[in-house]
Automatic annotation (TrEMBL):
Name of protein: Lipoyl-binding domain-containing protein
Protein origin, superkingdom: Bacteria
Organism whose genome encodes this protein: Pseudodesulfovibrio profundus
Native organism taxonomy: Bacteria, Pseudomonadati, Thermodesulfobacteriota, Desulfovibrionia, Desulfovibrionales
Lipoyl-binding domain residues: 23-96
Pfam families named among the record's database cross-references: Biotin_lipoyl (PF00364)
Length: 216
C-alpha cells in the first residue's frame, strides 16, 4: 500500500521543480538583467494574454524576439557568459525554481497514488457513449472499471478503434485528457482509485488543501 505520509514528507522536503528555459531558435542573446533570487511571473490575465516576466531577448536577422518566464518562480541561475553571443536553438539560458502550488501538489500525490491508464499511441481519445453519459450526469467517481471493459474509442488517421481497459479494478478518480485533443503515447488518460482507498485519498487531498502554503 502506498505510504501517503512518506510521499507528503518527500514533497515538503523539496516543494519545487526546476524549469530550464531554452533558446527557442538561433540568435544573439541579450539578458534582461535578472539575477539569482529575483522573482518572475508566468502569463497572466483572464486569457493568459499578458506575457510573463521578460528573461531575455533573442535577435536573429535584426528581428528581436522576447523570451518570457513560463511560470511563476524564483531565478536560480542565468547563463550570463552567453550575453551578446550567438546561441543555437535549445541552448539552456535561465533556470527557474518554481514552487509547487496547492493544486500541483495534489496532482503529484494523485499520480503516485492512482493507477494511471496510459495512451497506447498518439491519437484522440473519447469515452464510449454509455461511459461518457454517466460521467456527464453523475461525475467521475460514478464509473467503476474492470479488466477488459470497453472504455474508450481511439481516433487516429480517420480510423476509430475500441480500447478496452487494462488494469486493476477501481473507480475513475481523475481524467487527464480533453475531448478532441491529441494525447501523446504514454501520457496518462485516467487515474483509477481502488474503492477501498477512496476515503484515504480524499482525506489526503483535503489535508493538502487546508495545510499547503503557497509562495506569494
Amino acid at each position: 500500500m502506498l505510504n501517503i505520509k512518506e510521499l507528503l514528507d518527500k514533497v515538503k522536503a523539496s516543494p519545487y521543480r526546476e524549469i530550464v528555459v531554452h533558446a527557442p531558435h538561433t540568435g544573439v542573446v541579450e539578458f534582461a538583467g535578472l539575477k539569482k533570487g529575483d522573482k518572475v511571473y508566468g502569463r497572466e490575465g483572464d486569457y493568459k494574454e499578458k506575457p510573463g516576466t521578460l528573461l531575455a531577448n533573442l535577435t536573429r536577422e535584426k528581428n528581436k524576439k522576447p523570451i518570457s518566464a513560463p511560470e511563476k518562480g524564483v531565478v536560480e541561475s542565468v547563463r550570463t557568459e552567453l550575453e551578446g553571443k550567438f546561441v543555437e536553438a535549445g541552448e539552456p539560458l535561465v533556470t527557474i525554481k518554481h514552487y509547487l502550488t496547492r493544486q500541483e501538489v495534489i496532482e503529484l500525490i494523485l499520480q503516485e497514488a492512482l493507477y494511471l491508464f496510459r495512451a497506447p499511441e498518439r491519437a484522440k481519445y473519447y469515452f464510449v457513449p454509455e461511459v461518457d453519459q454517466k460521467l456527464k450526469v453523475s461525475g467521475k467517481r460514478s464509473v467503476k472499471v474492470t479488466e477488459g471493459m470497453d472504455l474508450m474509442i481511439v481516433s487516429r488517421m480517420k480510423r476509430e478503434t475500441p480500447l478496452a481497459y487494462s488494469g486493476p479494478e477501481g473507480i475513475i478518480y481523475s481524467v487527464y485528457f480533453s475531448r478532441g485533443e491529441n494525447v501523446d503515447e504514454g501520457a496518462p488518460l485516467i487515474g483509477i482509485c481502488p474503492e477501498d482507498q477512496l476515503t484515504v485519498i480524499q482525506d489526503v487531498v483535503a489535508r493538502i488543501q487546508s495545510e499547503w502554503e503557497e509562495e506569494s
